[in-house]
Amino acid sequence: MTRTLTTDVVVVGAGLGGLSAAGHLQQDGYEVVVLEHQTKPGGYAHNFKERGYRFEVALHALDGMEPGGWAHKMFETLGVYDKVHMNSLDPFYTAAFPDFEITVRTEIPDYLTDVWTLFPDEKDGVSELFASLRRLGHDMARYAADSKRGEQVPAHEMLTRYPDMAVAFSTPWSVYLDQFIETDEAKAMLSTLWGYLGLPPSRVSAGQFGLTLLSYHTSGAWYPTGGSGAVTRAMAETIEERGGSIHYRNTVNSIVPEGPDKITVTTDRGLVVHARAAVSNASPRATIDCLPEGAVDEEWERAVREEDAALASLVVYLGLDRDVTADGWTHHEFFDMVGYDLDAEYEAILAG
């Protein structure tokens, strides 16, 4: 049976991106309808229960939750800050390398002290590295402020206007580190979180990795009570409280532009949504498959379809019938590092 809805914007996918888009659209006064093929919100950001245990699917730790941090501002804007209890993680994680182990504290002075203790000969370089990352952070803040005001800086002026940002985002993290750090051991330790981004130091930009590292050590590492699912449930709840609707178990099978400010989205359950615009949080390839032939640039479509799959991982969910904290296990996260060549580890993963 066909059911028809009319709205301003239809959002495909109730993952973090789709829910965030819907929430921000509501803030700007638009009506939204969200379509999700699963039975609950969250996409990758959810939890599941098995035999009495709750398992986390996605979130290691959230940065930017200190007042003034990017995530703190976003949670307030989306109306979920007061609905989710965030727990500060300090220490953040422990990394065990073949020759040493470090338990990482989040406050920059504490972190630097611990790194200097491990690598006294790298003290000046580590200090200069974090001074450079702070400049990168300042450039990014200026860039964000300029963009919010609608000011667009021409590409040829980026290096002059935001020098540290321009350099960092055009430089691999490994090359960036080489300017400050001498030993492979120190470089590997400073790059422990590469797995969060799915790319090793030679393939991830210094801008992306450096800002991640800086944010965890300036605005903290946090984990919500109830896991990442608590966050996405709160986001979905707020969307519905503000008049939006979320339709689960509705797999989108077509997205058809029909003219300016007119698009129709249909699902496998007979739901038809007429809207002024659509936002897809599905993958580019899945989105293209829902569009009419020729709806997107042929060269871009070819590039999307030729892309390799992203880095995959084998995840073992282990439920223990004991309180491991009572046995002395106090780590939120533990990295068992097999060596210091992180690019070699990445290649080994790709090779299976």
Could you characterize the architecture of this molecule?
Helix content is 39%, strand content 19%. The protein is globular. The protein has helices at residues 16-27, 70-77, 108-118, 123-148, 158-161, 163-169, 173-178, 184-190, 194-197, 206-218, 228-241, 284-290, 298-306, 342-351; strands spanning 3-6, 9-12, 32-35, 47-50, 53-56, 62-63, 86-88, 93-96, 101-104, 221-224, 245-247, 252-259, 262-267, 271-275, 277-280, 334-336. By secondary structure, it is of the alpha/beta class. The chain has a four-stranded mixed beta sheet. The protein contains 14 helices and 16 strands.
Average pLDDT metric:
93
User: What spatial form do the alpha-carbon principal axes imply?
Assistant: globular
Given helix and strand content, the structural type is alpha/beta
The radius of gyration computed from the alpha-carbon positions, rounded to a whole number of angstroms, is 23 Å
Percent of residues in beta strands?
15-25%
Q: Could you give the distance between the termini?
A: 47 Å
**DSSP strand count:** 16
Q: Are there runs of 5+ residues with pLDDT below 50, and where?
A: none
- In DSSP terms (H or I, runs of 4 or more residues), the helix count works out at 14
Give the helix proportion (percent range).
25-40%
- Major sheet description: 4 strands, mixed
Biggest sheet: strand arrangement: 1-14-13-12
Overall domain count: 2
Order of helices and strands: EEHEEEEHEEEHHHHHHHHEHEEEEEHHEH
